[in-house]
């Protein structure tokens, strides 16, 4: 099958052949180490029956390895300059379909209906463009796609926040948002030297495994997420203070204290000490009081 794309020599050759110059604004840092890619694919649990959705194939380094391991790969790439390159580098990979679209605007659910079998297990695997890591993952999670897992290379700090435990400085509203839908685990840290060009930040591989059921029962998801965000608005302030500020326009201070009392959560605690269950209890109590 020839040499993999993910080597310094082949990547440089491909870039020269097409006169390609990296766009920093699109988060273009390509992987030039095939071992890293194989480790990612192993962590993702890809088998020859899997369907894979990739975001940002670049020149196809990861796509090529995914095509060898999986049944089918659909890859979304926004940069039109990469399309002729991918046609060339992936010409032997008949099971890859490149979609020229901004992932944030894509109807992924509709694509999945067309491109994958109804009973096939589907995984998202990607070396994400770091400038939009959170919007991409939140979009894919909130759309509740029939996807089993997400295995993504992202900025280390963001991976730590998504996989954080209560009472740590990384724990916040992003943690709750991600862990509401998935079990999150940082599975690998990755040196800057495996990218061309090397990024200015450290990277980790995060694996998100879809929960079969929501971990808590919330009356209204948007209300729940907004309340969680409010509890972390000023991290150093107590729950009572953050919630007073959140509800200030239309709720009496005493009502805030009364609802907190009802839930049994100490109003002088900070958001970072609350578990998902406690946040759910809090959100439902305020929702029922005010709706
Ligand atoms: N997968 C390749 C690799 O690992 O070598 C490239 C990864 S690079 C970090 C991110 C890729 O995402 C680039 O190819 C970039 O053009 C693409 N990209 C950036 N923004 C995008 C968007 N909104 N939708 C789809 N692809 C995007």
TrEMBL record:
Keywords: Cytoplasm, Methyltransferase, RNA-binding, rRNA processing, S-adenosyl-L-methionine, Transferase. Coiled coil: none annotated. NCBIfam families: ksgA (TIGR00755). Its EC number is 2.1.1.182. SMART domains: rADc. The lineage of its organism: Bacteria, Bacillati, Bacillota, Bacilli, Bacillales. PANTHER family: DIMETHYLADENOSINE TRANSFERASE, DIMETHYLADENOSINE TRANSFERASE-RELATED. Signal peptide: none annotated. Its main location: cytoplasm. This is Ribosomal RNA small subunit methyltransferase A. It comes from Lentibacillus juripiscarius. S-adenosyl-L-methionine binds at residues 29, 31, 56, 77, 102, 127. Specifically dimethylates two adjacent adenosines (A1518 and A1519) in the loop of a conserved hairpin near the 3'-end of 16S rRNA in the 30S particle. May play a critical role in biogenesis of 30S subunits. It catalyses: adenosine(1518)/adenosine(1519) in 16S rRNA + 4 S-adenosyl-L-methionine = N(6)-dimethyladenosine(1518)/N(6)-dimethyladenosine(1519) in 16S rRNA + 4 S-adenosyl-L-homocysteine + 4 H(+). One of its GO terms (molecular function) is 16S rRNA (adenine(1518)-N(6)/adenine(1519)-N(6))-dimethyltransferase activity. Residues 36-212 form the Ribosomal RNA adenine methylase transferase N-terminal domain. It is found in: Cytoplasm. InterPro entries: KsgA/Erm, rRNA_Ade_diMease-like_C, rRNA_Ade_Mease_Trfase_CS, rRNA_Ade_methylase_Trfase_N, rRNA_adenine_dimethylase, SAM-dependent_MTases_sf. SUPFAM superfamilies: S-adenosyl-L-methionine-dependent methyltransferases. Belongs to the class I-like SAM-binding methyltransferase superfamily. rRNA adenine N(6)-methyltransferase family. RsmA subfamily. It is an enzyme of class 2 (transferase). Pfam families: RrnaAD (PF00398).
